[in-house]
UniProtKB/TrEMBL annotation:
<dbReference type="InterPro" id="IPR001246">
    <property type="entry name" value="LipOase_plant"/>
</dbReference>
<dbReference type="InterPro" id="IPR020833">
    <property type="entry name" value="LipOase_Fe_BS"/>
</dbReference>
<feature type="compositionally biased region" description="Low complexity">
    <location>
        <begin position="492"/>
        <end position="505"/>
    </location>
</feature>
<keyword id="KW-0275">Fatty acid biosynthesis</keyword>
<keyword id="KW-0479">Metal-binding</keyword>
<keyword id="KW-0408">Iron</keyword>
<dbReference type="InterPro" id="IPR036226">
    <property type="entry name" value="LipOase_C_sf"/>
</dbReference>
<feature type="region of interest" description="Disordered">
    <location>
        <begin position="491"/>
        <end position="522"/>
    </location>
</feature>
<dbReference type="InterPro" id="IPR001024">
    <property type="entry name" value="PLAT/LH2_dom"/>
</dbReference>
<feature type="domain" description="PLAT">
    <location>
        <begin position="179"/>
        <end position="329"/>
    </location>
</feature>
<keyword id="KW-0560">Oxidoreductase</keyword>
<protein>
    <recommendedName>
        <fullName>Lipoxygenase</fullName>
    </recommendedName>
</protein>
<dbReference type="Pfam" id="PF01477">
    <property type="entry name" value="PLAT"/>
</dbReference>
<keyword id="KW-0276">Fatty acid metabolism</keyword>
<keyword id="KW-0444">Lipid biosynthesis</keyword>
<keyword id="KW-0443">Lipid metabolism</keyword>
<feature type="region of interest" description="Disordered">
    <location>
        <begin position="388"/>
        <end position="419"/>
    </location>
</feature>
């Protein structure tokens, strides 16, 4: 607090207080009487609260009311003293930089040199030139400071420049103070307002310094402007008229501050700036704009232009950083084309982002580094919560995650990182990876999706450990969407659940008035039962969902029969499937199996090898009874799929024994509950595989190392950084949330899915055996699964085996749009293949992704060699496809497909009974109850509904494919032109999808449930829409 700072500094008199006040005369004697009054009242209040004499307040007030001349004289002396120190520091230390093409080693030498710019002596900015603090190692030795001060030459102050010598750079900052984001508004003033007022009074201000693209030969970096402070910080913000993403018509609480920099005519174009925040609270810097005007008195130079900086970053107090915060303009360059004044800064900024791999990360850190998945277990809580480390071994390989540096666990310090104490405490990610919501004037703020889920999910999770409730009938399940769910009712209405209305978007955001919310939780009606409550049970719908459901990339064309396992037969028994010709030929419309395979009419879904090795462990739990499964489907004459056989297998009960397999076929007519339960086992396996592999592994875990490497190796000045980062935003945030509550020991997956504690080991097995980078490309994936064949005469060069395959049809359109855009984008910057090979940042980036981020598979097949422009286009297309389209295809339909638990159970608790057993008699007596007792409990269903509702919801600030956060994201007209073409292509795809969904001959686009396939429809409004392709893997 302010009075503590005053007392600690020994400021008992007005004379001593002068040392702590700002060195800018104009800022010391504040003309803002309301701010002075607020500060005085604040200090008096704090003095009363702590039963102390408000001596500090008295002293501060005395200074403000004292002699302005005395203050000015004292400040002038201090200002000259410290300005001299800074000039000497700049000249003596920055000469260590090589002025032409400095190498990395020279940059690192410079980084290690003490360059404090005397922040330890004066915290505020001055009107003289200030040294760029790239590596903040404070010179604390007083004698060394005095020695440097004696050698300083005198600099020419800005105000002494002649009018013909300088130009004025009008600079505008758009920012949001902390009081207007994240925290609710408090009438009458917030702590943040009071802190800012106090800091401003003490001279702890916010300052800006420009860096030219032109090099200063004495320093080796861009020419520096004078450091200027923001004036009138305490003025109330006016809502910005250009609030991006606001659909309300109102503006956001964004403040605009204007600064005029006087620089010499030879200064050049600003390519970067430094911002220093001496407030204790952070603020959100949205953008900076600099108007370049001709020199005054120079009539020939009358051309004006503008430089834009898109920041979107939280700026913390300078003490939170080891180096100054630097932002680059929206102009991008390959490393070899970097303006000379930006070369060193470009390299040093990357070094700052990489860190040194030590220490626990703090909230304000901006460091991206790698770690194994050693934070999923919690053996400190209980021995049963211990989990193996994923990554770093041949047995359990896995992509790397972001390093947090948390302390090791107490019970297993060699293998486990300690867990956070609460689900509401954030794991470290760089602050700008977490979305900052700026409030909109006149609109009650709503929680983001993760926080909303946390409010709704907490009571549901509590019920997992405290209650166990069963569904009594299918009508009992449907009642969840008609009345509040009391299974997971919150403790009190003040922290209660979300109410859902049956609007078009079925928003899952909280009611603005918590007092009007019901005691229980209500849920939107999932689309899978919205039109026909029983259509989900039909075999044709079971078949359609492999083509148009939430896991559409696992079905394969059957090319050999019988199917054969790749597992070791000595351990897992006979590898040959027990499904025979006799099982399936009665359902092939007169075709033989051989003929059906030749005509590509047989397909299969294989959850045999991925699950069988874990079944003995899984089934040792009294709450789990699962099988490994194989499902065969037949393509009928009307283009729909129909299941014709399901094989459910158990591993050998003891070494040397055979596995136990049973085959089930559909009834010739009517309903057969044994067949329905067999389908439920397949769907439970599918739900687990979808969440652990198709969703988490393919679109979250494998993308995380790419996010890390991009920030470590591609400078913000790199054209690929500018293209990639919008497609990587938010991924670290949602992945950290998943490690806290979804995939961790005792988390949602383990408590509600069949694999339980072995879930992540199954995910690791899929990464080990099935994942290749090149096969993540949609065309390669379709060919691998036999769902398409190369055909130069077909659109996109592929012929789909099933023409009515909605995921593939729409996906190929988006894949083509992405690759076309990236091809055109790369053509702007890379003249030839040689320029790709010599791009050092690009090559370092790709090497680090392969050898570090995916180090367990660095020697595997499938990694492209980035030695040509086509290879680069293909690689980037895979990354953007995964982060945007593939994630959308498997994520945003989860609620509407899975929230009705009987249609997509997450676990199975009973095996299929044999005829003649008491269990079979129970099944015959009450088949519906037996079915419900086989699948997930009502308590588990409540948790899954809550989780998938949050995961499937678009936030109000979501950016979709073809969108950017600002129209000024690039200054290059060529870049903007190719992106505009991409946007037009996306709009055409939307119209194409609409027309396809109107074509009723395409039966797989709607199906019996009358649910159109829109998971790859690019745009969407906020809420629960079951469509929309966000730019990145996030919610």
């Amino acid at each position: 607090m302010m009075e503590q700072a005053v007392l600690q500094g020994g400021l008992k008199t007005s004379n001593n207080l002068l040392v702590m006040l700002p060195s800018s005369k104009s800022l010391l004697v504040s003309q803002n009487s309301s701010s002075r009054l607020l500060l005085h009242q604040f200090l008096q209040l704090k003095g009363q609260q702590q039963n102390k004499k408000p001596a500090a307040a008295t002293a501060a007030t005395h200074v403000l009311q004292g002699s302005r001349k005395q203050i000015s004289n004292r400040l002038h002396h201090e200002e000259q003293h410290h300005a001299a120190g800074r000039r000497m520091m700049r000249m003596s230390q920055m000469r260590t930089i090589e002025t032409k093409s400095p190498s990395t080693s020279s940059c690192r030498r410079f980084l290690s040199t003490p360059l404090q710019a005397f922040h330890s002596t004066t915290q505020s900015a001055t009107t003289s030139t200030t040294i760029l603090n790239l590596g903040r190692e404070v010179v604390e030795d007083h004698h060394q400071q005095q020695h440097l001060l004696q050698q300083l030459p005198q600099a020419l102050p800005a105000e002494q420049l002649q009018v013909q010598d300088y130009i004025v750079l009008k600079t505008s900052l758009i920012l949001s103070k902390k009081e207007f984001f994240e925290l609710p508004h408090v009438p009458g003033g917030t702590p943040e307002q009071l802190f800012d007022c106090e800091d401003e009074f003490l001279g702890n201000k916010v300052s800006l310094q420009l860096i030219s693209e032109d090099v200063d030969p004495t320093t080796g970096i861009g020419k520096l402007s004078h450091e200027m402070q923001i004036e009138n910080w305490m003025e109330s913000p006016s809502p910005s008229d250009t609030a991006s993403g606001s659909s309300t018509g109102g503006g956001t609480y964004e403040s605009r501050f204007d600064i005029e920099f006087k620089v010499k005519k030879e200064f050049g174009v600003p390519g970067a700036f430094i911002i220093r925040n001496h407030h204790r609270d952070e603020f959100f810097l949205k953008s900076v704009t600099i108007e370049l005007k001709a020199a005054q008195g120079d009539e020939e130079s009358n051309h004006n232009s503008t430089v834009h900086f898109i920041c979107d970053s939280c700026i913390y107090n300078t003490k939170a950083y080891k180096s100054d915060r630097i932002f680059f303009s929206n102009k991008v360059y390959l490393p070899s084309d970097t303006p000379e004044g930006m070369v060193v800064l470009r390299e040093l900024e990357l070094i700052n982002m990489q860190g040194d791999g030590t220490g626990e990360r703090k909230e304000a850190d901006r460091i991206y580094d790698y770690a194994f998945y050693n934070d999923l277990g919690d053996s400190d809580c209980h021995e049963s919560m211990k989990r193996p480390v994923l990554g770093g071994s041949q047995e359990l390989p896995y992509p790397r995650r972001l390093r947090t540096g948390r302390p090791p666990s107490t019970t297993d310090p060699e293998n486990q990182e300690s867990r956070v104490d609460s689900v509401f405490l954030n794991l470290y990610i760089p602050r700008d990876e977490r979305h900052t919501q700026v409030r909109v004037k006149g609109v009650v703020s709503k929680e983001d999706a993760i926080l909303a889920a946390g409010r709704k999910l907490l009571p549901a999770l509590q019920s997992l450990y405290s209650t166990h409730k069963e569904f009594t009938s299918l009508n009992n399940v449907r009642d969840l969407y008609k009345a509040p769910d009391i299974i997971a009712a919150p403790v009190s209405s003040s922290s209660s659940s979300l109410s859902s209305s049956s609007t078009e978007t079925r928003s899952s955001e909280p009611d603005e008035d918590p007092e009007n919310q019901p005691e229980g939780m209500t849920y939107p009606v999932p689309k899978i039962i919205a039109v026909d409550e029983k259509a989900w049970t039909l075999d044709v719908e079971f078949g359609r969902e492999w083509l148009a459901g939430i896991n559409p990339a696992v079905i394969q064309c059957l090319q050999e029969f019988p199917m054969i396992s790749q597992l070791d037969p000595a351990v897992y028994g006979n590898p040959v499937s027990t499904i025979t010709v006799d099982h399936i030929e009665p359902f092939l419309d007169g075709l033989t199996v051989e003929k059906a395979i030749a005509e590509k009419k047989l397909f299969f879904v294989d959850y045999h090898d991925g699950f069988l090795p874990y079944l003995n462990k899984i089934n040792s739990s009294p709450t789990s009874h699962a099988y490994a499964s194989r499902t065969v489907l037949y393509l009928t004459s009307d283009g729909t799929l129909r299941p014709v056989a399901i094989e459910l297998t158990l591993p050998p009960p003891y070494p040397g024994a055979e596995n136990i397999a049973r085959v089930f076929t559909p009834p010739s007519q009517g309903k057969n509950w044994v067949w329905e339960i067999a389908k439920a086992h397949v769907l439970a396996n599918d739900t687990g595989y979808h969440q652990l592999v198709s969703h988490w592994l393919r679109t979250h875990a494998t993308v995380e190392p790419i996010v890390i490497a991009t920030h470590r190796q591609l400078s913000p000045l790199h054209p690929l950084h500018q293209a990639l980062v919008p497609h990587l935003k938010g991924t670290l945030d949602i992945n950290a949330a998943a490690r806290k509550a979804l995939i961790n020991a005792g988390g949602i997956i383990e408590k509600t899915f069949t694999p339980h504690q072995y879930a992540m080991q199954i995910s690791s097995g899929a990464y080990k055996n099935d994942w290749r980078f090149d096969e993540q490309a949609l065309p390669a994936d379709l060919i691998k699964r036999g769902m398409a064949i190369p055909d130069v005469n077909s659109k996109h060069g592929l012929k789909l085996i099933i023409e009515d395959y909605p995921y593939a049809m729409d996906g190929l359109e988006l894949w083509a749009a992405i690759t076309t855009w990236l091809h055109d984008h790369i053509e702007i910057f890379y003249a030839d293949d040689q320029s790709v090979q010599t791009d050092t940042e690009l090559q370092n980036w790709w090497t680090e992704i392969r050898e570090v981020g995916h180090g367990d598979k660095k020697d595997a097949e499938g990694w492209p060699v980035l030695n040509s422009k086509p290879a680069l286009v293909h690689t980037l297309s895979i990354i953007i496809w995964l982060a945007s389209c593939q994630h959308a295809a498997v994520n945003f339909g989860q609620y509407d497909h899975s929230a009705f638990m009987p249609s997509h159970p997450t676990s199975t608790r009973r095996q299929i009974p044999e005829e003649g057993t008491p269990e079979y008699e129970e099944l015959e007596r009450d088949p519906e109850s037996y079915y419900l007792s086989t699948i997930s409990t009502a308590t588990q269903a409540s948790v899954i509904m809550t989780t998938t509702e949050a995961l499937s919801t678009h936030g109000c600030n979501e950016l979709f494919l073809g969108q950017r956060s600002s129209p000024l994201w690039t200054s290059d007209p060529k870049v903007l032109a190719v992106f505009t073409k991409f946007q037009e292509h996306i709009a055409e795809i939307e119209e194409l999808i609409k027309s396809r969904n109107m074509d009723r001959t395409l039966k797989n686009r709607y199906g019996p449930i009358e649910f159109p396939y829109e998971f790859l429809y690019p745009s969407s409004v906020s809420g629960l829409t079951a469509k929309g392709v966000p730019n990145s893997t996030s919610i």
